[in-house]
Amino acid sequence: DQGRPALGSPQFKDMYNKVRRIPVPKGGGLLDRSDLWGIDGSYNLSEYTKSFADVIVGGNWRKYLLDSDSTLFPDPVDKPIGITEFGAYVQITKELNSWLKLSASGRYDKNENFKGRFTPRITAVIKAKENNNFRLSYQTAYRFPSTQQQWIDLDLFSYKLIGGNKSFVSKYHFDTNPAYYRDSLQNGVVKQWDYPLQKPESLTSFEVGYRGLLLDQKLMIDAYGYWGFYQDFTGRISVIQSKSGSGIPDLNTDQVYSVPINYHDNINTNGFGIGVDYRLPRNFSVSANFSSDNLDVPAGLTTNFNTPKYRLNLGVANSSFGKDKRAGFAINYRWQDGFYFEGDLANGDLPAFQTLDAQVSYKFPKTKSILKLGATNLLNEYYYNAIGNSYVGGLYYISFGYNLY
């Protein structure tokens, strides 16, 4: 440690600022000038199809240009990596009678690196009585690997974080110098990793729900439950490769990679939620909602699911009170359960946090304007929502809207 600047000293800060501005591999800076171009559109055909059903069609096109000068992706200087995606959908809604409405849709998506996929969905809304509805839905969804899951190429010194594109096979010589599952070697079992073909993940889910007004329409309840089944779920595992070019790698000295994989067995997810709103006299109202989400995953698979198991929101508000009912206010309390965060760059326990949001408003009827003064995280309780992210404090604002009502 001789000659090393002390932590926090001016010399240390100066050296730190210099190094973080130098791009990798000579420094710690990342250059990401990537672009995303996109077009989205939809058209309601119901004017022409109303005798049969309500019909909506739409589509989208996206072009990713990954430009990092080889600091984040394996893109040569001034030669960004391009990825094109497109999709189209049609949605048909039909009211069969006074108590049953059906909605069906189909969507086709294509990414230039993967085969296209058609995903259907169907929903039924059943009217039990006035302002009381049950809903049932069957849905399928499809997700292409993200740009980083396909193309990231980042040396984190203790391991290399790479994507699932086949070009990495030749770049890191996995075809001639195979890698092995790290967790298997730790358990004394030699299991070779064969760099399987990367696939998009798909989800089949079922949902039931209820929404209704009760107690003379003063109480609104919205509740749901869902069950989902992932196929080819995308996660990450660690593999290790010999630096000598052959043989079984050493767990302590050889090269470790974090690689994306598709888990072939089904992975289940489920959850529920309930929201309650109650109208009180003189325009006061109180609200509460609670939700839970769960994912059942095998040990050793990094999922990046990153969703708290429980979340709670409580609120009280009044939209119009005082002289001429011009004033208003809203107070909301938010709480989120802690969970183990998994990211490409960092993992760790994310603690639970809670915040209080508040807002007051005043209306100016002559100009149809509203003045608002408010705060998100009013008490300025610092928290962070991902490992490696900066702390989030209070946000205080004032706004004026003209000709709003």
Question: How does this structure look, described?
Answer:
The chain has helices spanning 10-21, 46-49, 147-151, 167-171, 182-186, and strands at 35-44, 54-66, 81-95, 100-111, 114-129, 132-143, 153-155, 160-162, 179-181, 192-193, 201-214, 219-231, 233-241, 255-263, 267-279, 284-296, 310-321, 327-336, 339-342, 347-350, 353-364, 369-376, 395-401. The chain has 405 residues and is mainly β. It has two domains: 1-30, no CATH class; 36-401, TonB-dependent receptor, beta-barrel domain (Maltoporin, Chain A, Beta Barrel), CATH 2.40.170. The strands form three sheets. Strands 1-2-3-4-5-6-11-12-15-16-17-18-21-22-23 form a 15-stranded antiparallel sheet. It has a six-stranded mixed sheet with strand order 7-8-14-13-9-10. The protein is globular and about 80 Å long.
